[in-house]
Write a structure and sequence with these properties.
single chain; 277 residues; mainly alpha; 0% strand; globular
């Protein structure tokens, strides 16, 4: 992907990559079903747990606070799905090229690194939308939880979570590009390694003091703390969203640099043509 400085971004090449991924998705009903199946299962599981906690707390002395805390579970699950599915949508589209042994062809084509990344981010949003949007409306129908009722806060939550998901997806893709499909498991597990420290279902104060410092280094932590502040205290924490955005900009910049470096290393090691395990 060596280019002259005068050559700029080509939306035609980005569109061509996007059409390729859409054709792959459209031709495989199981792929489409998978996008909807897991978000639906998680929404139902956490929704029913929330319903149970709310009913159990009704007769308890701490009914009000426990009920409000339970009400954050399904909201946290929906936001977690943005983070997890956004990263998978990015990484799986990249893995499609590895599985089909097409990555070397792309690297030798006129496609630029930035155009490739832009196509992957667009496909991430498309894949996420297919699974996420129906589930948010089912959450309203089944449990009376309206994520969209949170207003503009949803936009801030989404922007920060999707930026994190792209950064993590880009780093994982770079590792797979450099070390081959033997590193593929990282794509499926990295978010679950982050989940405990991101404090998805509980406040940061639950963690031991040494771990709290690590938790505040992760942009999603600010989003989930912001969600709890909005649902429990009815206060939108713009300061938390701003800090999360700054961290996301740094994280995404590191991810882009890391991806380019691992691509260069893969070229030097000759691993672009050896995409097997």
């Amino acid at each position: 992907m060596n280019r002259t400085p005068a050559e700029g971004l080509s939306l035609r090449r980005v569109g061509a990559m996007l059409r390729r991924y859409l054709y792959l998705l459209r031709s495989s009903p199981p792929r489409i079903l998978d996008l909807i199946y897991w978000p639906l299962v998680q929404m139902l599981t956490w929704g029913f747990l929330q319903t149970y906690l709310a009913k159990a707390s009704a007769a308890a002395p701490i009914a009000g606070r426990l009920g409000l805390a339970a009400g954050t579970l399904i909201g946290a699950m929906l936001l977690w799905d943005i983070l997890f599915r956004g990263q998978l949508g990015f990484s799986v589209s990249f893995l499609e090229e590895m599985w089909s042994r097409n990555i070397a062809n792309l690297m030798m084509s006129p496609l630029r690194v930035g155009e490739f990344i832009l196509a992957l981010t667009a496909m991430s949003i498309i894949r996420l939308s297919i699974g996420f949007l129906p589930v948010t409306f089912l959450a309203i129908l089944f449990f009376g939880f309206n994520l969209w009722g949170l207003g503009l806060a949803v936009g801030f939550f989404f922007a920060n979570l999707i930026l994190t998901s792209w950064a993590i997806g880009l780093l994982c893709s770079g590792v797979v590009l450099r070390y081959g499909l033997a590193a593929e498991s990282l794509v499926w597990t990295v978010m679950f390694l982050m989940q405990p420290l991101a404090c998805v279902f509980y406040p940061v104060g639950v963690l031991p003091k040494p771990l709290q410092a690590f938790a505040w280094m992760l942009p999603p932590t600010y989003v989930f703390e912001g969600l709890r502040g909005l649902l429990i205290h009815h206060a939108f924490r713009a300061d938390l969203m701003g800090e999360a955005f700054v961290l996301n900009v740094l994280l995404f910049s590191v991810a882009v640099i890391g991806f380019r470096r691992m691509l260069l290393d893969a070229r030097r090691a000759g691993s672009l043509l050896q995409t097997g395990e």
